[in-house]
From TrEMBL:
SUPFAM superfamilies, sorted: Dimeric alpha+beta barrel (SSF54909)
Membrane-traversing stretches: none
InterPro entries reported in the protein's UniProt record: Dimeric_a/b-barrel, DUF1330
Protein name listed in UniProt: DUF1330 domain-containing protein
Natural source organism: Aurantimonas manganoxydans
Limits of the DUF1330 domain: 2-95
Amino acid sequence: MPAYAIAHLRNVTLNQGIVDYLERIDATLVPFGGRFLIHGGAKELCEGEVTDDIVILAFPGMGLARAWYNSPDYQAIRPLRMRGAEGEIFLIEGVGDDHRATDILPAEKADRV
């Protein structure tokens, strides 16, 4: 099952630390099969308000996502990001290609749908 690292970043300052972080992060992803799906980018607002930056990295599985985040190479550059941005970072499991919205319902409720 795929897994994702999601960063919800605000107050990003393009300082030397962030530049160094950006120059080094790609190499940390390679051993774990990680890749960028979203990295900032233009937003088209449909509902609510979003002023922050979103970054989504994809990994083949949760074990690899966790191993990347905890790797010595990523942990070495993490402070660079933290000095230039505030926000939340989390890992989350994805779903398979055959996933349907009702798959998250308890079995007794799914039977009524």
